Amino acid sequence: MFSLKKSAELIAAQEAGKPVVALESTIITHGMPYPQNLETARMVEDDIRAAGAVPATMAVIDGQLHAGLEAEELEALARAKDVAKLSRADLAACMAQGGTGATTVAATMIAARLAGISVFATGGIGGVHRGAEDSFDISADLAELAQTAVTVVAAGAKAILDIPKTLEVLETNGVPVIAYGQAAFPAFWSRDSGLTAPLSMNSAAEIAASHKMRALLGLPGGQLVGNPVPEVEEIPKSEITPIIGKALTEAQEQGISGKAVTPFLLQRIFELTEGRSLVTNIALVRNNARLAAEIARHLAA
Ligand code: PSU
Ligand code: MN
After folding, report:
1. 45 is catalytic
2. How much distance in Å is there from the Cα of 141 to the middle of ligand 2?
3. 104 within ligand 1 shell (Cβ under 6 A)
4. Which of 83, 105, 228, 301 gives the lowest tally of CB atoms within 10 Å of its CB?
């Protein structure tokens, strides 16, 4: 048997039947630079508490799967260098070898299910990369959404991906993609990807009801909620598009592939926007945390 170490806060919350929201840790180790990663991780946890739910950040530490990190564990992870990036394929091997790693959306969904948590807030999901017809680079996040019953709140998919193909793969796999409060599927730094989401809902209550209905129907898999970044923090498409193009060209020139692609692109876009992409990233994660907490409250009710 493996051991799942729950934080004291998570144990207390679940005993009391309180709403809980899962959080990933790859965004901390591979998505943002130190110290903004630590500050953001703490703020996001506090946003969830302020919204009446309890946060549980997932990670593997010395071979042990953690659901909810104590303050010093969160800080150590945020400061650590060369932490492994764990997706579905890597989780068991890391635990078996006693390693330490941060969970992607896919691995966080697995951890959330094991911990009995139904809602998860992140920034953006992985998806079908541009040029996937040659590289076959499709994030395991999409297959996870098809098989693990967790509702994931994200700000859509980044325009570093091929968003139309990402939506097609989700549709093929029967994953409900729900835009929150608008018709358009959001594109992370921008509110509108130019594509209409297959579904649109205007309240956390509806999203929770839909999650529950899927369980009643016995459908495996989760839901993807696309929550647009608040208007004041958005980077308009016209501004971010050329920057994404430049980062993608550099990745190709430097032969970046596999797990390294997403972290490389995020870091280059951070540099090319002189940090503005990070400000937007922080704002949208916090916005997603608040919506996820509201959904969790409806699920707990
Ligand atoms: N999108 C972000 N920030 C991130 C990631 C995605 O805005 O940090 C991370 C997430 O953990 C996601 C992972 O699950 O990248 C996807 O990586 P890949 O494309 O290698 O599956
Ligand atoms: Mn990939």
Report:
1. no
2. 9
3. yes
4. 301
Is 139 within any annotated ligand binding site? yes
* Pocket of ligand 1 contains residue 141 by CB under 6 Å: yes
CA of 240 to the centre of ligand 2 (A): 21
The model's pTM is 0.97
Q: In this structure, what CATH number is given to the domain that contains residue 12?
A: 3.40.1790.10
Residue type, 184: A
What is the C-alpha separation between 210 and 223, in angstroms, rounded?
A: 9
Question: 36-50 vs 276-300: helix axis angle to the nearest 10?
Answer: 30
> 120-143, pLDDT tens digit by residue?
999 999 999 999 999 999 999 999
pLDDT at 8: 97
- For the chain, how many structural domains are there in total? 1
| Peptide bond before residue 35 is cis, with ω within 30 degrees of 0 | yes
In the set 24, 144, 234, 294, the catalytic residue is: 24
Tell me which residue range forms the domain holding 151. 4-300
In order, the DSSP letters of 210-236 are HHHHHHHHT--S-EEEE-PPPGGG---
